[in-house]
Amino acid sequence: MKNTWQLTDSSGQLINLFGSLYAVFALRGQKITQDKVSNVIKVKHHDVYYYVKRYTSAGKGLKRFFGKPRLQGEWENLQWFTKWGIPTANLIGFGLEKKWGLFQRGAIITQEIANTNNLAQLAAKHNFPNNAVIKTISAQLAEHTRNLHTHHFIHNDLKW
Q: Contact at 8 Å (CB) between 55 and 71?
């Protein structure tokens, strides 16, 4: 069994909570989503929220056996976005477990971006009555999408 787990917290304050893949899978928190491949919980520690996404499958179809697990692509993308100056949640921990070379399980942990809403929440709350709001959001989205494309990154499901 090969287990790779990396915690990016250099202060060591999160090691008791997120110190190993075993600890991450034992966590309890507010359920956000769940499907056949993964689940996401929200955990509070010292007044800070963390999102813990735990994968129990590498993906669908042949992806389960060949290529890079979806989870690994997700944490690599977050690292690229940070490098390219695209605002994103802080990556706190990530890793996976393999048995006989096959993905068994893995997780990725991000820190909440305080005082933010996603676009779906904003649309529901404000119904976007103001064209200036739409123009501002559209300009930001276009700028970051352009940045992604400049780095030859294509996101197949860009949506809010």
A: yes
- Residue-level length of the chain: 160
Which residue's entry shows tokens 């709001």?
133
**Position 40 pLDDT exceeds 70:** yes
Burial degree of 102 (CB within 10 A; 0-12, 13-18, 19+): exposed
> In b/e form, how buried is each residue of 116-155, taking b as 16+ CB within 10 angstroms?
eeeeeeeeeeeeeeeeeeeeeeeeeeeebeeebeeeeeee
DSSP assignment letter at 87: -
Q: What is the DSSP string of 51-66?
A: EEEEESSS-SGGGGTS
Predicted TM-score of the model (pTM)? 0.84
Please write the tens of the pLDDT for every residue from 101-151. Answer: 888 999 999 999 888 877 777 777 766 666 777 788 889 888 988 998 999
Name the residue type at position 2: K
